[in-house]
Amino acid sequence: MALIVQKFGGSSVANADRVRNVASIITDTYKAGNEVVVVVSAQGDTTDELIDKAKEISAKPPKREMDMLLASGEQISIALVAMAIREMGYPAVSLLGWQAGFLTSSDYGSARIKSVNTTRIKAELAKGNIVIVAGFQGINKYDDVTTLGRGGSDTSAVALAAALHADKCQIFTDVDGVYTADPRKVKAAIKLDEITYDEMLELATLGAQVLNNRSVEMAKKYNVELEVLSSLTRQPGTMVKEVVNMEKMLVRGVTKDVNVARISITEVPDVPGIAFKIFSKLAAKNINVDIILQSVGREGTKDIAFTVSKDNADLAIEVLKTSIAEINPDNVKLDTGIAKVSVVGAGMETHPGAAAKMFEALYERNINIQMISTSEIKISVLIDAEYADEAVAAIHAKFLPPVE
């Protein structure tokens, strides 16, 4: 008997027919002799609708109350899935995050999982139940409901798989695996049979919306083997694991991220410690900084530019203008009309010329590069947002030309 953790996203349970389809997938797994623990997200656009309801009441609702509100979406979906399974004649029980043993930090809206007490889940499995768990949520030391942030249900599923020592963790979504690019935008995109944790983590961090990056990070840490597959097609998906058997492709994926803002600060005093002061102030506000570019000093000053998510842009500007005496507020500028386009692949470690190939693809489309960032397995460039889709297609064609 194997223990399988399955996670279903909001689109997979968006309406009654899809809930029944999900129930069918779950019961088929159960009938095969497996113990099954299921993590479910809120239905369809429920979370966005709840956020809109909050905005009708308050322009800046308290984060604690937002977590109380948003957690209700998963409560609805787990109950419906459990009902659908019981209608099919199989035993099922639904559990909220706190009932399933999720203890989190107290960062409302972006809590981190501290531990998972699996006692209740194991007890329900021992009774023969299929256990349906609300993703995206837990409880903190004050007994307050918390949420894990966007994509948090993926993290819930991986955490459960790790805590239960599950044999497999399946992430069901509306795509049938991980592709080398968004197949809706790039017709020549290739579905991957396997991908490494490191490659998937880079893709998830850089804008690919298949898996939450925190879930991939946790899967790598606890060696949880993931499968990304569709809840609609019943076809094998993409395995995410430590080592892949196939020969390394130069590039595993090309992706874009339009949730990017660039902040530039001109005439910063060219003295020791100024960069530390800037980025420590941002870090204190939990603002994650990505690409950083600093100019060569001139006449006692230098320019610094960096990127943050659009969600954090206004707060970052406020911090820079009000908290750092060495910065002239008039010299702080914000640009939100940009996109980050990236290529990812472990094969780039041993193949020189990947950057030149990427830059050539952009040059041939007359797309200007504004900033560049690299690591061992990825290259990212900042470009005007209006050219993002064209850039992805051009780069994909350069590295992964369509098969005739």
Protein model, in words:
The structure is a single chain. By secondary structure, the protein is of the alpha/beta class. The protein has a domain at 3-174: Carbamate kinase. 35% of the residues lie in helices and 25% in strands. The strands form five sheets. It has an eight-stranded mixed sheet, with helices on both faces. Strands 13-18-20-19 form a four-stranded antiparallel sheet, with helices on both faces. The protein is globular.
> What is the residue-averaged pLDDT?
92
Helices, by number, come to: 11
The main sheet comes to: 8 strands, mixed
How many E-type strands?
20
Cα(first) to Cα(last) distance is 45 Å
* Share of helix, binned: 25-40%
Q: Please tell me the CATH architecture of the domain at 3-174 by its name.
A: 3-Layer(aba) Sandwich
At the fold tier of CATH, the topology name of the domain at 3-174 is Carbamate kinase
CATH class of the domain at 3-174: Alpha Beta
